[in-house]
Amino acid sequence: MSKKKIILDLDTGIDDSLALAYVIANPDADLVGVTSEYGNVHVELAAENSLKILELLHHPEIPVFIGESHASTKDSFEVLPTSQRIHGINGIGNIQLPTPKRQPEKTSAADFMVEAAHQYGKDLIIVPTGPMTNLALALEKEPHLPDLIGGVTFMGGALTVPGNITPVAEANINQDPEAANKVFHSRLPLTMIGLDVTHRAVLTKDDTAIWRMIGTPAATNFADMLDYYIDIYLANQAYVGGCALHDPLAAAVAIDPSFVTTIDLDLKVDLDEPYRARTIGDEMRIHNKPHTKVAVNLDVPYFIGIFMKYLGKLFQNTKEN
Ligand code: BDR
Ligand code: CA
Predict the structure, then answer these.
(1) Which residue, among 319, 307, 320, has the nearest Cα to 25 in the 3D structure?
(2) What are the Inosine/uridine-preferring nucleoside hydrolase domain coordinates in residue numbering (predicted)?
(3) What is the Å distance from ligand 1's center to 48 Cα?
(4) How many beta carbons lie within 10 A of that of residue 300, not counting itself?
């Protein structure tokens, strides 16, 4: 079986950084590029954080691309105070990493997605873990994207549980509901990894203590970053029982769909109040053959076991400089 080619589309954030580490660590995947989104931070800082994390993990060869700086229906973007609280002012839990040795690539995120679609075809899975603005733009640039690539596995939305930014909306979808709705109405093969499953994928300080024992700079920095994130979760959403592994779960399912159980259901995003940014089944397409899978259940011990195994190995292997 050929390795899956992955593009991570990140608003690099703490859990986005974990998604990056997970794909690098997974022997069944090739990370072909990281595209950047605004969201948890401004897009330039998202790219800088990705470059820093890639250097920390000894993978400076993976290209990083800058994406759109704001939602498709707006002309600017400000980081929400909630995002600053959850991810820290610098987006990575206020840990201090050296200035990256390189710059992002000149090609835009959407152009890179289109180029990669032509190069890798069905082996390519795009994994957005922030707003869908870059992907919606790539679709506009290349309307054949749905026929070219293997699929899109995204972190966002909530079908069977409440939202986390409004009572009905999840944070990533809420940033650019129009872009997400375009993606939902394209023929892209989609898998939604929403709060339905990501709130069950939980990391605790018992897990970060294991990383601390590994003792490499990568292990220690990730432990510091995650302890920051866990403290915020315990203060704001104690019922989760630790921090939610939103973005790494989407990355993991992109590589191995067997972590989750899904239902086939085409979705829409509500664009009007009072339900703006809600993800829900599209009543206008209930007679069509669905192109969307929505994850509704997760094999928690299987996922956490594999997650800890791969990240532990990766952190061990970053010993030598
Ligand atoms: C999503 O919002 C962001 O804060 C996280 O990185 C994740 O992608 C969870 O709703
Ligand atoms: Ca994210």
Answers:
(1) 307
(2) 6-303
(3) 18
(4) 13
